[in-house]
Amino acid sequence: MTAKAGAVVTGAGRGVGKLVARMLVERGHTVMVTDVDEATATATATELGAIARVLDVRDDEAVAAARDEIVARAGRLDVWVNNAGVLVTGPAWEQDAATRRLMVEVNALGTINGTVAAIQAMRGRGGGHVVNVVSLAGITAVVGEAVYAASKHAAIGFSLSTLADLRQAGVRDVDISCVCPDGIWTPMLYDKLDDPAAALSFSGTLLQPADIAAAVARVLDRPKPVTTVPGWRGALARLADAFPRFGLRAIPVMVAQGRRTQRKLAERGLRD
C-alpha cells in the first residue's frame, strides 16, 4: 500500500477500533480516528499520531464530510473500516422503539453510509478496501440479541451484495471484506456478565480486541469477502444457519455454556 494513503476507522476511540487504527498508523497510513465521543476520539488520535473527528455514522452527510477531509489531507482514500456498533440485549418485544432504531441505524445504516462514501472516493482513484466489522450474529440466530442480529445480517447482506455490484460493474480494484468475530472482551460486554440475554456472546471463544485487529490486517493483505473469528465458530454458525431446526435446538446448550463463562468471569472480577 502507498505510504500516507488515507484510512478511516469508525468507532475508533477505544477497543477494537483503537487497535485497528494503531495497526493502520504502523503501516504508514494517514489515519482518521472517528467516534461519537469527542473526548475518546481526541485522546486516541493524540496517542496514535492520527486525526480526530467526531462522527455519528448515522448521518450520511457527516460521513461524506469525514471522507472528504481524509482525501484532502492524505491525497486519496485507501482503507475505510466500519467498526462502530451498538449492542443492547433482550427480546425485541421488551425493547423500546428508540433502542431498536439505534441498533439498526448504527450497525446497518452506519455501515451502508461508510461503505458508500468510501466507494465514491475509491472508484477510479486508485481503488481501495472497505472492511466491515460485523459479527457471527450476522450469520445465524442469536438468542437475546434479535435486533442486533438483524442489524448485522443487514450489514453482511449489504456488503456482499455491494461487492457483487462492483464486480458486475467491472470494478476490480475496490474490495469489501466482512470480519465476523465471536464475542469480544470490550466495553460492549463489560456490563453483560449478569445478563442472561447476552449469554450466547460468552459461549465460545471470548476474543480480545487485538484478535480482531489482526484479522483486519490479514484481510487487508489478502482480501476475502467473509472472515469468521475463530474459524471453527464460523463453521458452527454457518451450519446452524443452513439447518435452522438444528441450530435452534442447540441454542440452550450454548446458552448454558455462556452462563458458566459469565459466572466464572464475574467471580474473577473481570468487569472492566
Q: What is the CA–CA distance across the termini? A: 36 Å
Largest sheet: 7 strands, parallel
- Total number of helical segments? 9
What count of domains describes the coordinates?
Answer: 1
Kindly name the structural category. alpha/beta
Give the tally of β-strands: 7
What is the helical fraction, as a range of percent? Answer: 40-55%
Going across the biggest sheet, name each strand in turn: 3-2-1-4-5-6-7
Helices and strands, in N-to-C order? EHEHEHEHEHEHHEHH
Q: Looking at this structure, what is the CATH superfamily? A: NAD(P)-binding Rossmann-like Domain
- CATH fold assignment: Rossmann fold
**What is the strand content?**
5-15%
Mean pLDDT over the residues:
92
CATH architecture: 3-Layer(aba) Sandwich
Quick one: overall form? Answer: globular
Low-confidence stretches: none
Tell me the Rg in angstroms. 18 Å
Would you state the CATH class? Alpha Beta
Protein name: NADP-dependent 3-hydroxy acid dehydrogenase YdfG
InterPro entries: NAD(P)-bd_dom_sf, SDR_fam
Family: Belongs to the short-chain dehydrogenases/reductases (SDR) family.
Keywords: NADP, Oxidoreductase
